[in-house]
Amino acid sequence: MSAKLLVTGGAGYIGSHVVALLIAQGYDVVVYDNLAAGHRQAVHNDATLFVGDLLNPAQIGAVFAAHHFDGIMHFASHIQVGESMRKPWLYLRDNVVAASYLLEAAAEHNVGRFILSSTAALFDNPQTIPIPADEPILPGSPYGEGKAIIERYLHWMEPIYGIKSAALRYFNAAGAHPDGHIGEDHDPETHLIPIVLQAALGQREHVTIFGQDYDTPDGTAIRDYIHVMDLASAHILAFEALADGRSRRYNLGTGSGYSVQQVVEAAREVTGRAIPVVYGARRPGDLARLVADSAAIQAELGWQPQFPDLHSIIETAWRWHSAHPNGYGDWGAF
After folding, report:
1. Mind spelling out the 3-state secondary structure of 81-149?
2. Which of 259, 196, 277, 261 minimizes the C-alpha distance to 223?
3. What is 4-174+225-252's CATH topology?
4. CB proximity list for 108: less than 8 A, separation 6 or greater
């Protein structure tokens, strides 16, 4: 019998890609999503969709009453760093309380394995770049702080309830499913690659590059872009590895950083389109360079990115955006 997993936020960008890979590998999947930021069309047809809110313990209880889960992958979350500075309680309260209700139900129903979608926003002032998993945690936003709190919750779930966990701190998720049937669709869109591709489609007049005086080769900020399907494979490897009874924390990226200017240039090459750029001031809190050291997960689980270069990441994203210029076309439908 295949393992049954609960995937919260499985109608969202990263969650839907993880669900697709889980189904392809023979897992039984139940998606739990309130569809506030996710898309019904993104959920694989072979997954069971339960529309519910993690801030409603009764709804959580209903899905646990109907299914026995071998593990949980938790993606459901408010995810905008900038918003967290304006609306901190969505992140310090709602994200954290939602996770606590989910963990309480997991403990009550003897779910033994839990994968947390964590973040590079744990590291506001890294002392080592590329950033290893044992880098001291110092969040620079309520978003990062909320994830750090949930990681601490997981620390206590193991000795008290026996729940083994993996926290996967990923850097800049990007790209789309290679066959182009699911991809990235946020409202508002805050991620660089889809913003650049929207400019290529003529949906934006230009791309604003914030800061051109960083201590980097071309003066623009450098980030580590990791393909969403590489993230998906890491989640499955981590779930399977937890069977050995040892909890884990990993940073996930390719280890190769690309500047904002390099992203724009690569997108011009992939799309063959002119992408106008204007330059703005640095945004408060932006660091010059954030790159992951993923040596731990590579050594321990054999994980290797299958889309290690920027062009291959952008090519899959462009396939999605050019075929679905309005995304899933369902904003405001729920």
Report:
1. HHHHHHCCHHHHHHHHHHHHHHHHHHHHCCCCEEEEEEEHHHECCCCCCCECCCCCCECCCHHHHHHHH
2. 259
3. Rossmann fold (3.40.50)
4. 64
Cβ neighbours, 10 Å, residue 104:
16
Q: Mean of the pLDDT values across residues 162-187?
A: 97
Q: Which of 239, 254, 256, 245 is closest to 301 using CA atoms?
A: 239
Q: Boundaries of CATH 3.40.50.720 in the chain? A: 4-174+225-252
Q: Domain 192-223+255-323: give its CATH superfamily.
A: UDP-galactose 4-epimerase, domain 1 (3.90.25.10)
Q: Which residue has the tokens 């913003």?
A: 195
The residues annotated as belonging to the active site are 143
Task: Tell which residue, 237, 238, 240, has the closest CA to residue 248.
Answer: 238
| pLDDT tens digits along 91-112 | 999 999 999 999 999 999 999 9
Q: pTM to 2 decimals?
A: 0.97
Cα of first residue to Cα of last residue in the chain, in angstroms, is: 35
pLDDT digits (tens, 9 = 90+) for 238-259: 999 999 999 999 999 999 999 9
Give the number of C-alpha atoms closer than 13 A to the C-alpha of residue 86, restricted to the C-beta side.
Answer: 6
